[in-house]
Structure formats: structure tokens, C-alpha cells
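Dissemination and training. As part of the outreach component of the grant, students in the summer workshop were shown how a complex can be specified as a set of sequence lines and then modelled as a single object. The example used during the hands-on session is reproduced here so that future cohorts can follow it. Participants entered these lines:
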Amino acid sequence: MDRRTTMKWVLAASAAWPLFGRGAGRAEPALTLRGYGTDPDLLAVYRPGELWPLTLTAPQRRLAGILADIIIPADDHSPSASAVGVVEFIDEWVSAPYPASQRDRPVVLGGFVWLNDEAARRFAKGFSDLAATELHGICDDICDESSSRWRDAARFFALYRDLTAGGFYTTPVGRKDLGYMGNVPLASFDGPPPELLKKLNLP
Amino acid sequence: MPFVTAKSQRDAYDVIVVGSGAAGGQSAYTLCMEGAKVLMLEAGRRYSPETETPMFQTPDLAPLAAVGTPQKPFGFYDATLDGGWEVPGEPYVRASEEAAGRFEWWRARMLGGRTNHWGRISLRYGPYDFKPHGRDGLGFDWPIGYQDIAPYYDKVELLIGVYGSNEGLENTPDSSPGCLLPPPKPLVSDLLMAQRARRLGIPAIPGHRAVLTRPLDFRRSPSRLHPGNVTAQQILAEDMRKRAACIWATPCGRGCSIRANYQSTTVHLPPALASGNLDITTDAMVYEVTLGPDGRANGVSFVDRTTGRQQHATARAVILAASACESVRILLNSKSAKFPDGLANSSGKLGRYLMDTVGTTVRGQIPLLESLPPLNEDAADGDQLYVPWWLYREQRAGKLGFARGYHIEFGGGKRMPGYGTGAGIEWLTGGSYGSKFKQDVRRYYGSFVYFDGRGEMIPNDHAYCEIDPSVKDKWGIPVLRFHWRWSEHELRQAVHMQRTFGAIIDAMGGRTHGAVETDGAKAIAPGGSIIHEVGGAIMGSDPGTSVTNPWCQTWDVQNLFVTDGAVFASNADKNPTLTIMALAWRAADHILERMQRKEL
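and obtained this result:
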């Protein structure tokens, strides 16, 4: 119903951010500029890589999975982000020919470079080879954009958390995790249960 | 054969209808059900909601979790094909790129046009809305009043199916008995909003939307709609029986394969086609209304998009229903010795007084709605409740600083998780990640609300469109250039909306996301972006200051009609689609009468 608001949220989540100093000038794989066109088949099932090639390298995908699972690990309710295809989703996102993706791509790839550099600086290892406490040591420093002294890295982390959540909560597993009950046909819509309304003091 | 090509069209029709959306659909429906032979020309492709609607598809099946892109701006599953803010090969020009002068134009090149994806909000204009100048001296009065159009509101509601309630509120008309379907049950968030808004003196009542909350009354409605016309009654009864009631699932903006909401392609066109009186040619891009030696329109010229060839179709009368701006564009491009500045433009008012709706949004988060038990809140896909304009007395007393009203569209609930569900919540979580983040997303899911203001814009001399002197589309047709300006009335109204929404969120015990905007120029959405653009060929009682008469008939060419939003002389806060349909039905009745009298 509220498509405009939804779009604003999406746009706000992927607002243009300054490029990282490093990483931005590297040669990147050429992206296909076609996209899915203005009249795609809406009934087909699309998998990442079908419409445009995925572009993350194997080491980037490894790091992408580790970071996604730090943000959304397995818990009592649901599995981790990488277990439901979030790495493929993020690869699809940063490889897409659309403006939001092209804005986000250097932020994500630059963020990966920063994480590896920071891991090397602090622990003399690559980010993907860090122990859990070491990973959290870095992430704790960049997870809050409002207070982090690594501003670019914190912006990257905020974007990456949005991408991870966006990939995760749009899957069947993510919907179940949130207790989403809809998208099933009902003979009638009866409104909220009376006991809940009573509890909330609503008429 | 209802779908015809340029080659298989008949030699002549009673009426050509340009466009297949709300105006075109209603015009063709009324004419065909009463026996007129109609050719409908649609610029976009043929589209079948029954087979093409992605009803239960989830975001994980789509590219990029179904988020919007320039090729599908309202999301992958939105029922807009070959359309959006930009249409490839069909540019338009903005006279200014500055924010204050920005105009955006949403088009959909498909059968049914924008009715396939629209919000389905169906509000009647009230008595004040047709006579705004008489009340505050601004803008223009319509040459008709509420009493002229009320019977047609009844008819349209009966035909398309609109839920809502009669509340007897000022300038918020009741429908005749039996016209409205019962409103859906409100959500928890709706009830909380209504309770707290009431404490501020702000009324929340059931919304009005073109969604079938129960099956249509196929036994009684057809005879109310087509008295004395047994054939039409039978066709309509049969078609109404084929429309299912809402199943309380799947977003309306994708369209509806079971025909439980209104879109021209599922409501107007099927019975019109079943009458045997409607031919439709899709991929027919009309660019000119042609005139005969007698000064009457004799047809239209169009580009057959499948061949690129220019074609002509002939009829006794022509109805432009291509959307306000596209109809104006066709008229401006129809130049002749008699009409060097565009057809039906002797007043010089063609393209003038373009209006959109004042729009602004405030979002908030409500702790009372956190961590509620799992609930199915798909409901009617929104607008279970809304707030009609309520400050008439204060406005009359000059206390508000702006002249016209707005309504509030409210939303909340545990909607289908999308890309944004867990995104951008650092302002609440302090940047959590890991297990804490998962707990946070569960906690906040369903606790977000939004308030969209939708307000009246007063027509002004600085908001208009004209033909750009150099830019042409891929068919070689000159394109529109848009000029835009808001007045202080709209900017102040947008600030009032922001303050009000902030106050309601506060009263709900919540917090707004970001500060309430106090600068109207920053609060207001760009012109055109609410997609309620109307005006450009306004109706009036004086041929010197208006383009059409009260019957949507152009003053200059007696068999040429404009039945879309272009004829609006004002743009009340009420979303325009229901009024477009009511005007189109009324105009079609008038055309039928005049054809019977051999005047057309």
C-alpha cells in the first residue's frame, strides 16, 4: 500500500556515501548495463547470477559470509545469514547495473579492504582468518555510526548490516523468524484478537 | 474480435477513446454497455492481470529482494510495466531542475494504465470542493456542483466496488444506501492511532478503497446501473459474479488476478468487451486529433508501435482519456490553420493550471506496538482507517495560514518483511549486531508507523506544461516541458502536516524518525510525485477561460471530449481517480444522449 514510504526507506538505506580512499581507483570487472528491462517476467523465479554476472572473488565471498554471519548468526530461532543465501544476495546487489548498487559497490568493496587492512594492523592476519574475539574487537569499533571514530568504516558496516538484514528477512527463514503470518488467503479478516486489544486498552 | 490491429479496425466507429485507464475504461464501459461502437487506443501493450499478476510471490524470488530500480521504480512486483518516472525513448523536459520547480511524471505504457497499480483510495469530492473560489476567493469554481456528480459517484461505487462508511462529516459526503461495501477490520496500530488522535481532536474513520470486502451484489446492482437495458444488466451480472472477494493477502499494487480490487483491466474492460461493442488496439501511440472540413474531429492519428507506421482511425466523436498531461500533449500537438496553438486552445488555457497533491510523510516507532504476538495483518493492504480533513472551522476563521485541507493516510502493522524491515534501525538499536540485532529486529518488527499527508493544491499561473520546441520522443512526437511552482498555501500546509503527524506519534507514545520538518519547501514532495496530476484542460462556464464545458466537451470542437483528470478545475485533497470515473460516466451519458438526438 504505501509504496512511496517503502521506496524512501530503501533509498535512505542505500544513500550515496563518499567512496573510500583506497579501493575506489582499482580496475573493476565490467558490469552489464542492461538490467532486467522495464517489462520483466514477474512470475519467473530469479536466482543471483541469472540476470547479470556475479562479481565477488572467492576471498571476497568468504569475507562476505563471515561478516554476514557476525551480523546475523544462527540462534535458537533461525540459522545464520550465509546459510540462507545472503552472500549470493549481496553479490547480486553489488554486481547489479542500477544506480543504488553502483553507489554501494565501492562502499562494500572498500569496506572489505579496510577490514583486511585493520585485521593486518591489529592482528597481523587477514580478516577472514581472525578468531571470534578478534572479529568482534573490530566490529565493536565500527558498528555504531554515530559514535565510531572510523567514520567510513562505520558507514560501510551500517550498509552491510542493511544488506545482510535485507537478504535474510526476505527469505522464508527470515519471515518465519519474525513470525510473519500473512501472504496466505483467508476467507475472512477478523482483526486483532479481543484479548490483545484488552491488554492494550484499545476499544 | 475485440483486440484488433491497425489493419483489422473497422472503417468507422461511433467513438474513439484514447487511453484505457480510469477515464478511458469508464468512458468505454458506459458507451459500449449502452450500444455505442467504440475503438479504444492504448499506447502500451496488452496486459492480462488474470495471468500476469505475481500474487503470492515473495521478495526472495525476485532480483534484489524486489526493491525498486529505475526500471521498476515501485519495486519489482509493482503492476507498472514499461513505465515509471522515466519511459525509455519517451522523454519529457523540466523547465527547471531546482527542487522548488521540479515536476515528475509517472506513466505506465500498458493496457489499463496506472489503474493496475494505484492505491485504490476512492474518496468523493464534497460540496465545498467544487466551489473553492466561492469560499475563499482562490483558484476556480467548477461549473458543476456536488449534486450534479453525486449520482455518478453512486454508480461508480456500485460498479467497481468501494469499501467505506457513511459518517455524516462536513464536506465528506455519504454514499447512497447500498453503495459502499463494509470496511475491513482495523489493525492494532490503526486502533491505537485512532484512540490517540481522538485525544487531539483528530477523527479517524474507515478509509474508502476500491477493494471487494465481500462479493458484489450482482442481483441488484446491474438494474440500478443500467435501468431498462436488459442486455447490459445480464452482461454486468455475469461479470460481477466472476469477481472474487478479497482474500486478505497479496499487495494491491501488484494488481489482482482474482479481480478483487478495481483496475480498468479487470472491471471496466471485461464487460465492455463482452458487449461486443468494444475494439481495442494496443501499441497505438496517438499523437494527433484530426479535423474534418466541417471543423469537427474526424478521428485520430497514431503510431503503430509494432510497425512504426503512422495510422489513422475514424469516428463520429473522440474522447481523450490518455491521462491529464498526455491528453494535453495530444491537443497541443494537433495544430492546424484554425488552431495554430493546438486544438481546442482558443482560450490559451490548454496546459495551464497543472496541479498535483501536496504530499509529505512522517514516520515513527511506537514502543506500545513492540513485541506483539504474531498476527496476520495483511488485512486490506492498508487504509483500513484514515483521517479526513477536520479543521474547517479553524480554516474559515483564518487561523491556519493556508486555505485548503488535507487528509491523512496512515499505515502500520506486521507487513510482509521486505528489504527495509531490518534496515536503517541504528537510531533505535545503537548499532547492534549479532544475536542482539536479531532480537532487536524481532522487537521492532511491526512497531513502525507512517503518516502520509495528502493535501489540496490551488492552481497557479506558474504550474503548467507546453510543447518543448526541440525535444521529440522516439516516434518523432514533440514532448512536454513542465513548469512548476508551489504557493505559500501548499508549503504552509505541508508544515502543518508535519507538526500534526509528530503530535499524533507523540500521543501514541512513540518517537518520530528524524525531526519534524519546519521548512515547507523541504517537507513537500516534488510536483507530480504523488501522481495525482490533474488540470491542463480545465472545465468552466466561460469559453474564454476554460478548455471544456461542464460535460467535458471542448468548447472549440463539439465532438471532442476530455474525460481524464485534465478537466479538473481544482484538486481537492481527495485522491482524483473516483472523481475521474464519475466525470467520465457523466460525459459518456451526455455523448449517448446527443448521439441519440443526432447532434453527434
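Chain A touches chain B through 83 residues (CB under 8 Å). Students were then asked to discuss how this feature might be tested experimentally.
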